[in-house]
Design a protein that fits this description.
By secondary structure, the protein is α/β, with parallel strands linked by helices. It has 8 helices and 21 strands.
């Protein structure tokens, strides 16, 4: 069976399927993610820090699947209502401008879930309201208890339910909170808010007091990282990992695109700094950023979840150079650069994570994919796991090993001159001439 979906004949180049990283397609639960059969803790979701700052429906449509929301009382409404804002010294939201939690649930999140049957959304609450007021707010969202994830039916399972199981249950809104966690009785039904410190690992949130500072180390927000959930009955489940990658103050979309949300720095944080702090490389489940419309977070999240082709500015995938782009695995591609975050005339090497045997990658000097100029063909010979990192050190040599076969056709050099990338299936011998 093909490892790709809807693959045209790529070797002739025209008509190949192009994917953008800014929206999910039919059959996808988030941009570039269409495998619903993995346990929930094996997915990476782009997560909006201070998710209420920008239009949340637009962010959902963009592919954001996690929202960090600060809950405060309103400045004119007493303690009863719960608002969303980054409160100042008063600790209260402005009722004239800030939105109520009730309205956001009723008007944004539940309608989106109803219209998107393969989507699971997570809310990560920073809560400054009393439990009784939170209970009152939740009780004013009709049917909410039927939507909120309940782990109890899966307590005997060895790990988290699969995304498909969560979708089938109908309980597609996961809610974690730092305060007032536990069971809420609403309209005769039980709604569960999970205590974040019991269910997740999280790194300290601030990259620096100003955007001129970047503290890339990855200390735990709660003194240490733990492997398993602390909640009673679920101690055998692995913890979720929230990786905070943002400045608390002063950042801009341009800054985020260039640094905080840039693939080079996201990958270095995961592969180096957080890996050292946690004892091993751990893909974040929630990639928490500001300005999620800028940068490379969506393509990176898809690659962390389902595999990807990582291209590097330097040979040997050296961290001394930038990661130029990542192309998520599992879909056919024919990209004339610059495209999908891949700059023209930059890539010199490639790293493979989570790639299926039978995949073919072709890189060309010619923007049109002409074989009268330099090109290379890389055929993947075995299934490469998500936790592996197989490196193609250069495109300018023939190589045949246990992982891949690389054929290079030389004219005047290819490294640093790649202008087209094509990804598809290795053709059968009888089809080998199709690439000519």
């Amino acid at each position: 069976m093909s490892v790709f979906k809807k693959i045209p004949k790529l070797w002739g180049l025209p008509g190949a399927l192009l994917i953008t990283a800014s929206a999910a397609f039919a059959g996808e639960t988030a941009p570039g993610i269409d495998d619903l059969g993995k346990p929930f803790n094996q997915y990476t979701w782009v997560t909006a820090h201070n998710g209420y700052v920008d239009d949340m429906r637009t962010q959902l449509e963009r592919g954001v699947r996690g929202f960090m929301l600060d809950l405060h009382p309103g400045n004119l409404s007493g303690e009863a209502d719960v608002y969303l804002c980054h409160a100042g010294e008063t600790g209260r939201c402005d009722v004239r401008n800030d939105r109520m939690l009730v309205d956001v649930l009723n008007d944004v999140f539940l309608p989106f879930l109803r219209s998107s049957p393969e989507v699971v959304v997570t809310l990560l609450l920073e809560n400054y309201v009393d439990r009784i007021n939170l209970q009152d707010a939740l009780s004013r969202v009709p049917g909410l208890a039927d939507w909120v994830f309940d782990p109890s039916p899966y307590a005997e399972d060895p790990t988290w339910p699969t995304l498909a199981q969560i979708i089938a249950s109908g309980r597609r809104l996961v809610i974690l909170t730092d305060r007032s966690a536990g069971a809420y009785e609403i309209d005769g039904k039980t709604l569960h808010l999970l205590r974040d410190k019991q269910w997740e690992n999280q790194n300290y949130w601030d990259l620096g007091i100003t955007v001129l500072e970047h503290e890339w180390s990855c200390p735990s927000r709660w003194e240490q990282y733990d492997a398993h959930v602390w909640a009673s009955g679920f101690g055998h489940w692995p913890r979720l990992f929230v990786m905070n990658q943002f400045h608390t103050w002063g950042a801009t979309a341009d800054h985020a695109a260039a640094l905080d949300n840039n693939l080079t720095w996201l990958e270095r944080r995961v592969d180096t700094h957080c890996a050292v702090a946690m004892g091993k490389r751990t893909a974040p489940n929630f990639l928490a950023i500001n300005f999620n419309q800028a940068g490379d977070a969506f393509s990176y999240a898809a690659a962390l979840t389902q595999g990807g082709f990582y291209f590097y500015e330097a040979n040997q995938a050296s961290p001394a150079g930038d990661t130029t782009c990542v192309i998520p695995a599992g879909q056919s591609q024919s990209l004339r650069l610059p495209a999908r975050g891949c700059e023209n005339d930059e890539a010199r090497s490639m790293k493979l994570r989570g790639i299926s045997a039978g995949t073919r990658v072709m890189v060309y000097d010619s923007p049109g994919g002409s074989i009268t100029d330099d090109y290379a063909v890389i055929d993947i010979k075995r299934d490469i796991g998500l936790d592996e990192a197989i490196t193609v050190n250069t495109f300018e040599r023939n190589e045949d090993n246990a992982d891949f076969r690389l054929v290079y056709v030389r004219e005047n050099g290819l490294d640093g001159k790649i202008s087209r990338i094509v990804i598809g299936e290795t053709p059968l011998d009888s089809d080998a001439n199709d690439m000519q």
